């Protein structure tokens, strides 16, 4: 049967039907079909054995009743020569020790001894299965006494057709194949219906390219695994589309920011070559160096942002944030004073170089916009290390509090106070805060702007 199943699932047969043997549907169907064949074969064998045992058991019991009855008569010596017998136990013989049929029923009178087997004296009752001609006979043999020459009474019947032929086995094989095919068909249909949304998702997904992420996958109804997968994939596509849009915008803005100083530098150099007598070479060189410094700053900032977004691991260490702020804020150049208030026990786990970059950006930004004072406060708040840098300047409008963290974004006041800035400092500072599992925001202040850096607090070292 297994060999027949293997023949049915040969690759050429399935390929002719257009079935991919590597598909989940085909593999699952083959697995269920194989399991069904094994299971139904075992069930068929059990049923076959059970039916045979039941039929043969009933036949032997009926034979035992008839044989016991005539064994008692034979012991009295009044055994009739023609033994009366009725169906179904119509074969009865009394056979002597020499194998000669002494008395028999009408149906067994013309037959030789039904069996040559004689039960031993210590086991007088035995069940026998013999062939008389080409027909199987189920017999009960009883030795009428333990004497050595005691005759044996045989009583039995021809085996019923259900156990005499292989019809039961043929029926079992046919039923097994039919049920296995039914199980395979049902499995193929159910898995095909279940996997139909997956095929639709695959086809739609194959049409989505990096140039167009606006397409979405079809979402099946319900909350099964396939529906959840489609929803998650659509959410991922939405995030990818937003990231690609931001990337295109960033590329465009970066190109513009780099093109402007490069164009100015080119004009200056071309003027120096075209009008050597009218252009001061020293001034041209100084201007070119200043432009080169700005370009270098932008490129370095872009490289730092690329490293932060690539997830490259930084060297992390326990840092006393209060000591670091005091160290960076104290040696300030003449100008707006910085007042520092540090509470003890503010430790974080991070990169010293990157945190210094954040603090420098915030301090430079605050001193640029402050009128008379910059205040820095370091304190632990609700399991977080909080650094607030505030100034008493004009402040930042609520509508611009998130915009100032965008790349190359510079408000009008910042452009006026520092025309050479790159507009990447605050964006880099927020990326560093996120890389340290923290945040950087502009929060409410009584006057001026207040930048607040929050980082996870660790126990004091």
From TrEMBL:
Primary location recorded for the protein, binned into one broad class: membrane
Pfam family name, one: HATPase_c
Keyword Transferase: yes
Localization per Swiss-Prot or TrEMBL: Cell membrane
Entry's transmembrane regions: 28-47
Organism, scientific name: Streptosporangium oxazolinicum
Record's keyword terms, sorted: Kinase, Membrane, Phosphoprotein, Transferase, Transmembrane, Transmembrane helix, Two-component regulatory system
Keyword Nucleus: no
EC number assigned by the record: 2.7.13.3
Enzyme class, first EC level, given as a word: transferase
Catalytic reaction list: ATP + protein L-histidine = ADP + protein N-phospho-L-histidine
The protein's name: histidine kinase
A molecular function (GO) term: kinase activity
PROSITE patterns: HAMP, HIS_KIN
Histidine kinase domain sequence ranges: 253-459
SUPFAM superfamilies found in the cross-reference section: ATPase domain of HSP90 chaperone/DNA topoisomerase II/histidine kinase, HAMP domain-like, Homodimeric domain of signal transducing histidine kinase
Domain HAMP: 192-245
